[in-house]
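Q: Structure tokens for this one, please.
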Amino acid sequence: LAEAGVEFSRTGDRMVFLADPGQPFRFNVITRVVATGKDTRHTFETINVSHAVWRPDAKQIAATGSPDDQQGEVLLLDLVANTQRKLPPPQHKGMAAVVGYLPDGRLLTQATNALGFLQLATLDTTSGRYTFVGPGDWDLDDVDLAHNGAVLLSRNVHGVSEVLLLDRVEATPQLLWRGGLVGDVSLSADGK
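A: Here is the predicted structure, written as tokens:
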């Protein structure tokens, strides 16, 4: 059994992670009650599931389902109703990779735009409508979202990384650094 992508609920009493029970290297979403160690499997996909995140109220989990890490859709797992909804990406045969929930309840994703680049996009999970935000002329490499809605991202521009900070998702990006290759960015929960 392989496990990856652990995230605790905001209350710290449950965690969500990805594991491959019965299907080597085909990950699915599992939650665990921390106090008891009781696991519940929520997806039974034959493709990889990744990027599992809690909604702040811990009543829903969003994740990405993808056969090849090039195309993928958003999976919404309602833990109260025990239902699953699949939302396609904004571009046909594109990707919509979950980043996290914004303070206003929208979901932040990395989605394929019309130019074929991965760009930040918000997703209204009720309507299934995506709205692209931030720069979209080069691929995103990594994105981190703080609980307060601040976004830190790196993107590859002509083979060089740019690290940008947005104090909220619709804000003008502030260039923090340009140069080298940045593969991972991280913010604290309060956006610092």
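A few notes: The mean pLDDT is 94. Residues 10 and 57 are 8 Å apart (CA to CA).
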